[in-house]
């Protein structure tokens, strides 16, 4: 996990960015349009939102109501949601996608297409060096890409594009600045990766931590770098107290639920028992639950574990039951994960003498 956080992604410079002419739509077959009228090509005079997502992607699913709301707000803009990263057997993917979209009904109020061969995934996502989903491209009436980013953040850009007030020159400058910052980050990651390999061989993390501290000094709000430092201190460097100090810094930042969840889980279960700060673990777990909208079974599972480690068996049992109940209701929940949640619940019940 640590190496994942600081891994270097080597890629050629993006060939598709803000200000580029939008690529053509892939030549979809008729049955690849899962919902809505097929769009064979991007028409001049019409603005588009082309979003990439997958049925297994939690944030993508969470954003569906927002996209539907925006399609209603901007009916002249054509929304096309492209499933270009489906997993599982290739011959089953389209059926799974059809079932998912049908199940959503009117809640998914925009066009949906299936990109089984990932033609659009390559010509749009890979060309723009966008490695994560969901990701949206706003295409102006002139066929030029106006904005690229997370669909939950496109309200203002889309409103400006629709109103004809969007400043493309400023958007291009912002995109260029972001690309330069990303390049700098990747160069730093390359250096850290080298130091990480050396530290793993020698067991001495001094040089690696010093390099991380340099990066943090230049940008004290770099939560990813702080998280990396936390994990190293809590894990291979075996400096739990220092890790907690970094963790407390992270608690003051605007972190995502799963990042907070990680702080709680590592500090409550992976550090030496005598070095744990369960007050910190509880604060992180509770904040993760408050940030998680809707509630995530995995996050509740961590909160339950923290309660258990603190000796509050009743709260642990009640919270774990809540996690299981949510998991049962979630049709997308991985069966193995749900099984683990249920197994943990049974262990809590057996230890407390609670009845089924």
Structural notes for this entry:
- This protein is α/β, with parallel strands linked by helices and 356 residues long.
- The protein has two domains: 11-175, Glutaredoxin, CATH 3.40.30; 193-352, Serine Threonine Protein Phosphatase 5, Tetratricopeptide repeat (Alpha Horseshoe).
- Helix content is 56%, strand content 8%.
- The protein is built from 15 helices and six strands.
- The protein has helices at 2-5, 58-62, 64-73, 90-104, 119-126, 155-163, 168-202, 206-218, 223-234, 240-251, 257-270, 278-291, 297-309, 313-329, 335-352, and strands at 33-35, 48-53, 78-83, 111-114, 135-139, 145-149.
- The protein has a six-stranded mixed beta sheet, with helices on both faces.
- Strand 5 and strand 6 form a beta hairpin.
- Helix 10 (240-251) packs parallel to helix 12.
- The protein is globular.
- The two termini are 36 Å apart.
List keywords for this structure.
single chain, Glutaredoxin, disordered N terminus, 356 residues, 2 domains, 15 helices, alpha/beta
Question: How are the elements arranged and paired?
Answer:
Blueprint: H1 2-5, E1 33-35, E2 48-53, H2 58-62, H3 64-73, E3 78-83, H4 90-104, E4 111-114, H5 119-126, E5 135-139, E6 145-149, H6 155-163, H7 168-202, H8 206-218, H9 223-234, H10 240-251, H11 257-270, H12 278-291, H13 297-309, H14 313-329, H15 335-352
Parallel strand pairs: 2-3, 3-4
Antiparallel strand pairs: 1-4, 2-5, 5-6
